[in-house]
Design goal:
Blueprint: H1 6-32, H2 35-42, H3 46-52, H4 56-69, H5 83-95, H6 115-121, H7 126-147, H8 158-177, H9 184-194, E1 211-218, E2 243-246, E3 267-273, H10 280-286, E4 292-298, H11 302-323, E5 333-337, H12 341-345, E6 356-362, E7 365-371, H13 375-381
Parallel strand pairs: 3-4, 4-5
Antiparallel strand pairs: 1-7, 2-5, 3-6, 6-7
């Protein structure tokens, strides 16, 4: 039998820890789960568990993220053609995951019951979670706009998407805290009716001037695997450099497909800290037709925050893929850069939670770099010279 490389051994141990942790959390719940018991289940040492995850909460987030990314995508028999239909399908996909009153407290659907309490317990997670929810509203809003373009040139449907996500998040929390109270059919009907609301949502660009300069540098991003390339249709796979790719993405004509993540194509790459994720909308709206837009998510605490990011985005991403036809998927690829290798390739040596750096890529070269608030809009709005 061929001997495993160090990277292969690490990946195998990480998978064993995740599976053991999933079993422990399912049987005991997050509060009563013990790292020593997880190590025993995985047939590893306590130190081996901590070498992969800094603590129990980080491990909990990683388990939930892994399950969310591997959730099967059940495509609707008839793709949604209107915003009302799409919101109904998103809500239907969401409520099918909610715990039932008749289920045992150890049922898989109850595994995430401690997620919100853990977020509430740590103020450092509040801002990243808020930005992740804004990012989800942007993904949903952009998809709805492809089905129903706003009447006004500066109109958008992101606030409407946020209202729908507020309903769905509230339903999820009540289903866990008050079993039997939430009526799934009512939730679906409410989300469908939201489509008729006019929230007077307008897109404006903040009056900030980032540091922008033309350049000519090689663009050699690390190779990563696309999470949409697999039977589950949404499982994230980390490459040897520690990066992972996830969320909902579209290619040049707005459609998404599986396979390797093509980060070398012409377009905009935005390195965004978890406090600046909503800036990705500026890149998508300002980028010319055919330009690929990639948001690279970074943070100063990747071991805990990036699994949370993967989880939150995957929950909505799965619903989007089930509810919307492929041409309506947003033209945005989301990449989670745990090792910092992708950020380094973009020229960001020390990414932090407030990082906003955007580069313009053309023919395998970085031709423009923008840094600071407004960088995404500046890099995306720059038109290629003939």
């Amino acid at each position: 039998m061929a001997r495993l490389t160090r990277a292969e051994a690490q990946e195998r141990n990480r998978a064993k820890v995740l599976e053991a942790a999933r079993q422990e959390f399912a049987e005991r719940g997050f509060r009563d789960a013990k790292i020593d018991e997880i190590a025993d289940r995985a047939e590893l040492t306590r130190g081996a568990v901590y070498s992969n995850f800094p603590g129990k909460r980080a491990l909990y987030f990683a388990v939930l993220a892994d399950l969310a990314e591997r959730a099967p995508v059940i495509l609707a028999e008839e793709p949604a053609l209107t915003v009302r239909e799409a919101l109904g399908e998103v809500a239907r996909a969401w409520v099918t995951r909610l715990p039932l009153m008749t289920e045992d407290r150890h049922a898989p659907s109850r595994l995430g019951a401690d997620l919100m309490p853990e977020i509430l317990a740590d103020e450092t997670l509040h801002k990243p979670f808020a930005e992740l929810m804004r990012l989800n509203a942007i993904l949903l809003g952009l998809s709805m706009e492809r089905l129903r373009p706003p009447k006004e040139p500066d109109g958008r449907l992101v606030r409407l998407a946020g209202a729908a996500l507020t309903v769905l998040q509230g339903a999820g929390q009540l289903a866990a805290a008050a079993p039997g109270f939430v009526d799934s059919f009512d939730v679906i009907r409410v989300c469908e009716r939201l489509a008729d609301l006019d929230l007077d949502d307008r897109w404006t660009v903040a009056p900030v001037i980032p540091d922008v300069r033309e350049t000519d540098e090689p663009w050699s991003p690390p190779i990563i695997r696309d999470p949409m390339d697999g039977a589950a249709g949404g499982a994230a796979s980390g490459a040897s450099d520690g990066t992972a790719d996830g969320g909902v993405d579209g290619d040049a004509d707005g459609r998404a497909d599986g396979g390797a993540a093509r980060l070398g194509r012409d377009g905009v790459v935005a390195v965004l800290g978890v406090h600046r994720l909503s800036a990705a909308e500026e890149a998508v709206r300002a980028a010319p037709p055919g330009a690929e837009v990639t948001a690279v998510v970074v943070t100063r605490t990747p071991a805990e925050v990036l699994p949370l990011a993967r989880l939150v985005v995957a929950e909505v991403g799965t619903c989007l893929r089930q509810a919307f036809p492929k041409p309506a998927w947003p033209r945005l690829r989301i990449v989670y850069d745990e090792s910092g290798a992708l950020a380094a390739a973009a020229g960001v040596a020390e990414p932090g939670d407030m990082t906003e750096v955007a580069i313009r890529v053309r023919s395998g070269r970085i031709v423009l770099r923008a840094e600071g608030f407004g960088a995404c809009h500046a890099a995306a709005s720059q038109r290629d010279r003939p």
